Amino acid sequence: MNYHDPTLTRNWDNLKKHHKKIKDSKLKDFFKDQNRFNDLSWSANGLTVDLSKNFINLDTLGILYDFAKEIDLESFRSNFFSGEKINNTEDRPALFHALRDRSSRAYFVDEEDISLKIKKALDKIIHFSNNLHSNTFLGLTGKPIKQIVNIGIGGSKLGPQAMLTALEDFKNDNVKVDFISEINTQTINNLLNNCDPEATIFFICSKSFTTKETIYISRIVKSWIKSNLGKNSLRKHLFAVTSNSSEAIKFGVDEENIFPIWDWVNGRFSLWSSIGISIALGCSSKVFEEILYGAFLMDRHFENKPLQENLPVVMGLADFWNVSFLNYDSFVILPYEYKLRNIPDHLQQLVMESNGKGVLKTGESVKTGTSPLVFGCSGIESQHSFMQLLHQSPKSVHSEIILSMDPTDMAQDHIVASALAQSSILMSGSGAYIVPSAEKDKSSLSHQYCRGNRSNSIILLDKLSPTIVGSLFALFELRTCVQGFLWGINSFDQWGVELGKNLMANLLDNSESTYHNNCIDSSTISIWKKYLKNKANNNEN
Ligand code: F6P
């Protein structure tokens, strides 16, 4: 079900013909059409998406909608919501959206109703967070908890961290949240030196409870808690979010202190589960429920709106066109709203781990590009680092500018004007603007020339409320799922990251036969041995 190769469809050929027809046009010429902004921008749930500066016209969109119909995007959408096992390589559904369903709809996995489990887990988060904020839950020695440490990596950190930063205005002033994923000793020590053991609790966030980095840090933290507060302190200071509760219990986490997650929630889509508990603890359970509600609204929008009015669909189709026909193999994410500065890190994982795939769902090689390379940083910062390349290099990078209309920041006019100026120039190039020095010195003209014709999109938030930010994060997720479906790939596995984990273990084995049996190349073995020799020498001295 839902298996296809996009390049073998009728509309792939239509898109190719259409591309041939318009490829020599200039983006700025598209703007002769006075209705362009109205035709190519969409609003829903406090978000406006402007694709008018993408290399797209209404004919392009028409064929893209036909393509979506031809490959039956609508049935993908209904299978996704009804919990079909669309993650075919792991034989699982992708039901992260069920975590934020605020209706009474029931969800089933292998005939088991999971709705009750989801509700129980959410109630546990709400209850714990309310208890902590009201000082009903106290540390072992009776001190209120002032610091939460999230030990986790990848999706067990990036989504919650990006969300929590976005909601800075809603933070609980009495509780500080730290995230740790790096295993270097100095980082761990720096963190622990700044924690009051009596007033800090640690959450080991690991769906698998096998992630090396997370477990390594957790071991150090566990002995730090014990050495500061004594043997019985773990029950008050060590918690886990995992689907592998037996390992967590073996590790020393009290069964009561385990918050669940399930295998039908992929790490990069997991901030709506107990993995997002740092959001409830760092803000409040009410804020956590509001982001769930915002995401729920976006799910309903995706599920019910016709393709032509549907934000995740329209954006996913534009991405498909940008990558597969216009060869935009890099997307830069530029949040001009500073509080959204961690979104690029989250999207790197979300998009590239989901859609950085080389085979179709059938296992055959893809014949078109899949996930773009995603990078980015605060838009204001980027203007003084890599923005130069975006304007003048022959490389074409698609830019995505994220802005908030909230006028509460003193510098907001400056920020918005700055973002719009970049967006406009990326689209039209320097031709439309007079560069004063160029008037005087014609020889410098070519050096000042900005190419323009660079596709860029704007996402505008009415304001940074938890509901709207929840909708925004859900939009990114759903759009990523749409992209994957259009390319005919499975967005919900990540086999590519598994090999590295195994090879690392093989090296740590320090055995010639392991190296040999695993066919480890000579460069890798030589450098590993050189490192070990150097370590041995250092130890001798
Ligand atoms: O190695 C990649 C990955 O599996 C991600 O998909 C995941 O978000 C991350 O590691 C952390 O995994 P876990 O929550 O199981 O520790």
Task: Provide an overview of this structure.
The chain has a six-stranded mixed beta sheet, sandwiched between helices. The radius of gyration is 25 Å and the shape is globular. Strand 3 and strand 4 (112-113) form a beta hairpin. Helix 15 (343-355) runs parallel beside helix 21 (466-487). The protein has 541 residues and is of the alpha/beta class. It has helices at residues 10-22, 27-30, 36-39, 58-70, 73-82, 115-133, 158-166, 185-193, 212-229, 234-237, 245-251, 277-282, 285-304, 311-324, 343-355, 379-382, 387-392, 412-428, 436-440, 445-448, 466-487, 498-508, 512-517, 522-540; strands at 41-44, 47-50, 108-109, 112-113, 147-151, 176-180, 200-205, 238-242, 258-260, 330-335, 373-376, 398-404, 456-461. Bound molecules: 6-O-phosphono-beta-D-fructofuranose. The site of 6-O-phosphono-beta-D-fructofuranose (F6P) has 14 residues, from loops.
Structural descriptors:
541 residues, alpha/beta, six-stranded mixed β-sheet, 24 helices, binds 6-O-phosphono-beta-D-fructofuranose
Topology:
Blueprint: H1 10-22, H2 27-30, H3 36-39, E1 41-44, E2 47-50, H4 58-70, H5 73-82, E3 108-109, E4 112-113, H6 115-133, E5 147-151, H7 158-166, E6 176-180, H8 185-193, E7 200-205, H9 212-229, H10 234-237, E8 238-242, H11 245-251, E9 258-260, H12 277-282, H13 285-304, H14 311-324, E10 330-335, H15 343-355, E11 373-376, H16 379-382, H17 387-392, E12 398-404, H18 412-428, H19 436-440, H20 445-448, E13 456-461, H21 466-487, H22 498-508, H23 512-517, H24 522-540
Parallel strand pairs: 5-6, 5-7, 7-8, 8-9, 10-11, 10-12, 12-13
Antiparallel strand pairs: 1-2, 2-13, 3-4
The site of 6-O-phosphono-beta-D-fructofuranose (F6P) has 14 residues, from loops.
